[in-house]
Amino acid sequence: MAKVRGADILAESLIGLGVDTIFGVPGDTGVVFYDALYAVPDQLRHVLARDERHAAAMADGYARVSNKIGAVEVSSGGGTTYVVGGLGEAMASGVPVLLITSDIHRSSRGSGALTEIDQMALFSGVTKFRAVVEHASDIPAMTAQAVRTATDGRPGPVALIFPEDVFDELVEQEALDMSPTTQTLVDVPAQRQSASDDVVARAAELLANAERPAIMAGSGVHSSGAWSELGALAETGAIPVATTIHGRGVIADADQWSLGVVGNNGGRPYANDYLASADVVLLVGTRANATDTNSWQGPAREGTTVLQIDVDADRAGRNFPESVRLVGDARTVLQQILEQVPKASDEVRVKRGEEVVAERTAWAADRWEGDLKDGQLHPRDVVELVDEVIGSESLWVADPGTPTPNVATYRAISKPGRSVIIPRGHGPMGYAIPAAVGISVARPGLPVVSVTADGSFAMACGELETVSRFDLPILYVQFTNHSMGWIKMLQHLYSSKRYFGVDPGTIDAVKVAEGCGLRAERVTTLERLRELVTEFAHDPKPLYIDIEVPHMIDVLPPVPAWQTALDGNAERPVY
């Protein structure tokens, strides 16, 4: 009777469940699984990363733009400890990632074996589900359970831990039950839950009777694919829509109901003011934390009626305990509300719409007028130029620091959809370089713009070789200010300009990128930038552009709390 190895069972299970790509770095305990991958390259593509944290970021980026689970593989010891950093962002941001990790031989447990670590404990803070697979025959059912859990409810990372001898274990083919893996389970959302009718009726009534209603939308709208329903509710009720950074793209920027980004990082002042003055605010698929709400000012925790749609009952109302909680899938619940909200009167529609457009137009026309040092470019000018030349079909990803507020607020969104990825779960530096790989793999043929900074570059530049190896159509734009700029700005504002630990040496990013096989250039004029980006748009080949930008101390980015500090309020904002 034919027998099959555990490693081959895992590969077959993943394929059956709909996983077709896995990012990873091989190690001793996972060698047999790589032998199984060798046999199925056309069904289960492997993308070799240069670092496990970066492999997780690739899977994260892949998942965000595909709305499918991203898969990452690492081995015991260093691989497992490195990957935790990548999973933390996915956990905080609600991104479905399947971690497959190998472990020491079962007979070596407790012996102090090389790479031994309690992986269940290690992953407890960065996964919503984790399990050790003790027998090869359990692989199909446990893999299906893990994938289903990652995509069900609020998406998140899950981990399956395989002792290396389980990969070698043989199971009789005829006795193996593969039925749990015969249904594709990788798509998000796994199911669509509706909210209770009485709560929906109350929410609809509150929105209809509001004098100044608003919507704050987050990444849950993207995960649910609820763009049409959100737009229809805004149009029907004449309700302006603001977005968190994660929600960027839930509504087109030119839509008359679009307020733009709110919060304490990239937030537009008029949008923050609108949320702060609203009497009823509907939160959709957002944590609505201190950063999103501009330190609890918009909406305020007191004096504002808050409604919250969240697929996770534990999160609905967490930050606004008195809110009306609508637990369910964003698209489903928005449709429920839409069916009960009456159409706003023409008078109300004109008044609210004109206010939003006027505020947005005035904001767009307000540009910084100072002088830059020779060779420096303004981040806003860079983002807007690249966006203009490459066009709306491109996908963008941005690192923390200078890239985040500038990309979040200045990259124009022409149609609803997730086309801007910014990691604001944990804000991990170095995310944008590897995440661009996952994004490009998920959406082949589309140009990807990855905006990074010199601090993040130092953490992740090894993955540029991966970009070169796969010849991915990624344009990297590096904002260089020769410091750990964000932290130095905090020291400038809140530590009386006592700068410490924020001024590392400069790395020549152009030479490093060229050493990894990319075309690279340091750019000092907008004219040369336009030439290079135009060439990339016509023939998207890997390209790295290094641009010196003014330090945040000299030219303030769109961070409202910092303007408040410069105006005299030296109290550090609550995050």
Number of helices: 22
Q: What is the name of the CATH class of the largest domain?
A: Alpha Beta
In the CATH scheme, what's the topology name of the largest domain? Rossmann fold
Number of strands: 20
**What is the radius of gyration?**
24 Å
Helical content band:
25-40%
Question: Going across the major beta sheet, what is the strand order?
Answer: 3-2-4-5-7-6
Classification by helices and strands: alpha/beta
Q: How would you characterize the largest beta sheet? A: 6 strands, parallel
| Integer count of domains | 3
**CATH architecture name of the largest domain:** 3-Layer(aba) Sandwich
Annotated CATH homologous superfamily of the largest domain: Thiamin diphosphate (ThDP)-binding fold, Pyr/PP domains
Distance between the termini: 61 Å
Average pLDDT for all residues: 96
Q: Report the portion of residues in β strands.
A: 15-25%
Q: Flag low-confidence runs.
A: none
Shape: globular
Main attributes of the structure:
575 residues, alpha/beta, Rossmann fold, 3 domains, 6-stranded parallel β-sheet, 22 helices, 20 strands
Characterise this structure.
- The chain has 575 residues and is an alpha/beta fold.
- It folds into three domains: 179 residues, Rossmann fold; 167 residues, Rossmann fold (3-Layer(aba) Sandwich), CATH 3.40.50.1220; 200 residues, Thiamin diphosphate (ThDP)-binding fold, Pyr/PP domains (Rossmann fold, 3-Layer(aba) Sandwich).
- The strands form four sheets. It has a six-stranded parallel beta sheet with strand order 3-2-4-5-7-6, with helices on both faces. It has a six-stranded parallel beta sheet with strand order 11-10-9-12-13-14, with helices on both faces. Strands 16-15-17-18-20-19 form a six-stranded parallel beta sheet, with helices on both faces.
- Strand 15, helix 15 and strand 16 form a beta-alpha-beta unit.
- Helix 1 crosses helix 2, helix 14 packs across helix 15 and helix 14 packs parallel to helix 21.
- The longest helix has 20 residues.
- The radius of gyration is 24 Å and the shape is globular.
- The protein starts with a strand and ends in a 9-residue tail after the last helix.
